[in-house]
Specification:
- With about 240 residues, this protein is mainly alpha-helical.
- The protein has eleven helices and four strands, in the order βββαααβαααααααα.
- The chain has two domains: about 1-105, no CATH class; about 105-215, no CATH class.
- The protein has helices at about 30-40, 45-60, 70-75, 85-105, 110-115, 130-140, 145-150, 155-160, 165-195, 205-215, 220-230, and strands at about 1-5, 15, 25, 80.
- β2 (about 15) and β3 form a beta hairpin.
- α1 packs antiparallel against α2 and α1 packs antiparallel against α9 (about 165-195).
- This is HAT C-terminal dimerisation domain-containing protein.
- Pfam families: Dimer_Tnp_hAT.
Length: about 240
């Protein structure tokens, strides 16, 4: 028995995180693809390209462990992947580096300080920055405590956390990085909207459901249920 995937190879049928037997498009392959986008826009483009080549090599050998949810589903249900589908996914992976470069072009030298503020020098500092910003950037580049934070945090988290200490540099960096972070939510939102607003629910106002799908806040189900339970007054 073969798993049928949408022919574009952009979306795959994977088990839902809560219900193994349910199938949900995009959960496995798209998750890895969005992770590649995050790595690529963070400046680690060589790493993302190597990861894509690794995926292609695994698929040519019928190894699907690189897509964890997909692998879990086919092994738990004793399924196999059709050769044509594998070929389509490999083709999509072949085209993916070009798409990454189109969505996330190379960061020029003018913005290299955003990628790594600890590699700047007085000679290489961006001339478009004001004198005050240049001074702040040089001070930051010599701060070893901030360097330790830089190695532990993502790029957007690091610059957002600097708003109190270096407000001008922080705003400038966050405004530059923000479009990359919101691209993931946009792509993920389209995927979830296709699942929520079907032809049988075409008049549904899907905004509340989309908010629940995209939020990272985990609801406290037990507390919510307890607050809704009726109370019985004993006279």
């Amino acid at each position: 028995m073969s798993i049928v995937l949408i022919s574009t190879a952009k979306y795959c049928k994977f088990p839902d995180e809560d219900t193994k037997m349910s199938r949900e498009p995009g959960k496995g392959y798209d998750r890895e693809r969005f992770e590649l986008q995050r790595i690529h826009c963070a400046g680690q483009d060589t790493s993302s390209l190597k990861k894509i080549e690794c995926w292609k090599t695994c698929l040519r050998s019928n190894i699907v462990e690189c897509f964890p949810l997909f692998h879990e589903f086919i092994t738990s249900n004793t399924l196999s992947v059709d050769a044509q589908i594998t070929a389509e996914v490999i083709l999509h992976l072949t085209n993916l580096p070009g798409e990454l470069k189109r969505y996330f072009p190379e960061i020029g030298n003018a913005e290299s300080w955003i990628r790594n503020p600890f590699k700047v020098s007085p000679e290489s500092i961006n001339a478009s920055l004001s004198i005050k910003q240049q001074k702040s950037l040089l001070e930051m580049s010599a701060d070893q405590i901030l360097l330790a934070d830089f190695t532990k945090m993502s790029l957007i988290e690091f610059w957002a956390a600097r708003l109190g200490e270096y407000p001008e540099l922080s705003r400038k960096a966050v405004n530059f990085l923000l479009p990359f972070a919101t691209t993931y939510l946009c792509e993920s939102g389209f995927t979830h909207l296709v699942m929520i607003k079907t032809k049988y629910r075409n008049r549904l106002h899907a905004e509340p459901e989309l908010r629940l799908k995209l939020t990272k806040i985990v609801p406290k189900i037990d507390s919510i249920c307890d607050s809704k339970q009726p109370t019985h007054r004993i006279n």
